[in-house]
Write a structure and sequence with these properties.
It contains 20 helices and two strands. The protein has 494 residues and is mostly helical. It folds into two domains: 272 residues, no CATH class; 216 residues, no CATH class.
Length: 494
Amino acid sequence: MNLAPHLPALQVVVPLMAAPLTVLLRRRSLAFAVAVAATWLALAISVQLWLRVEATGPISYAIGNWAAPWGIEYRVDRLSALVLVLVSGIAAVVLPYSRASIEAEVPHQQHYLFYTMFLLCLTGLLGITITGDAFNIFVFLEVSSLSTYVLVALGRDRRALVASYQYLIMGTIGATFIVIGIGLLYLMTGTLNLADMGRRIAAVQHTRPVLAALAFLTVGISLKLALFPLHQWLPNAYAFAPSAVAAFLAATATKVAVYVLLRFYFSVFGNSQVFGRLPMQEVMLLLALAGMFAASLIAVFQTDLKRLFAYSSVGQIGYIILGLSFGSATGLTATIVHLVNHGITKGAIFLLLGCVALVMGGTSLARVQGLGRRMPWTSFGIVVCGLSLIGVPGTAGFVSKWYLLLAALEKGQWWLVFLIVLSSLLAVAYVWRFVEVAYFREPRKDIDQAVGLPWSMGVPAALLVVATVYFGLDRSLTAGSAAQAAALLIGGAR
């Protein structure tokens, strides 16, 4: 049987079918084996889809042979293929890491449930990315969100329950706004297929329901991607979730939400004059700048590394949205390439912090004194990723900020170039806090010296650190794919 034509469906079906199988098996070792096999197979499928898109163009797959727009369509283009590779790639790295990590952070009797929820979360994120149907985006969003709430709550710290509840409340509000926006668009266009919706919206672009749909979708998706000031759920969720969960969410969840925002803005609303009637670019610019400065400034004063880098994520999301606010091909390229580069970098940081938490017994600045001597390679990895957040040449973060600077210069906005550079100095400040504690203070004497780092945790973290450097030196894959995707989005919007 030739499965190649059905790869888009298998991208979602493989992790979806593996999830209940881990519940039926229940044994930790078997559940882990099934989860790893499913995630690696999902990665292989996403790579195959990406190669096919590069070779032959966008792929359209009709579920149940019901052709779009009447049936549900899975659609893979350059942008969705890139995000599919990011999500499945991060999952394939994080899951082997998680086996040793959750030994110390999740009760043994809940390990199989961890793998179940992880696979469901992966299913939802992949489904959001690959579907061409607006209502399916909402369905898969709920699948990923509900499983994420459970994953966050699995942390041993009781504050994980509070973080999960806070995330649930704000996530539910965001999902409600999104489904209202989708409902208004369906009311006015009579279709749920995104491509068809984009073609029909021009006829109703001056109606109030369409404007309201844009507003509801913007707020709802902004809650999901933690755009400042709608980010309140993120710091606690990242700080108190199990380390593997924090790494996976930091690298994928908010990035997929950014993808959804791009998809609605350019594939649906881009064919209308809606943006001309609302100051969306100006609003996004102001919120992006507020996030870049406020969140980075808050990060400087954190006393725990997980919370420090959680607030850093909010600031980095500001850079992603800043690229979108330019409304140009270069700005969109910056958004897409930073979506990928920040996902890799922040995934590496939280994997490394999981290593620190295991060996040092926590990630507070007080506990990691002298970490540079106790865990030299781990400390070096965190510094390298910190340099990427700053945007130092030779790291992935530099490529993103370079495109942001180019986009600002294209617009003749020298003041914005100054602000981008100035905000990077705040990143220097919070990264320096780690450097000062790890390298310029004496190691604590009360830390158990016998605790070692399992290779199953060290190797996945090292892979993402290497990727952070590699994509800073060779930008052909990330920046090249991002530029092609941006050109298609801009072209579709016209």
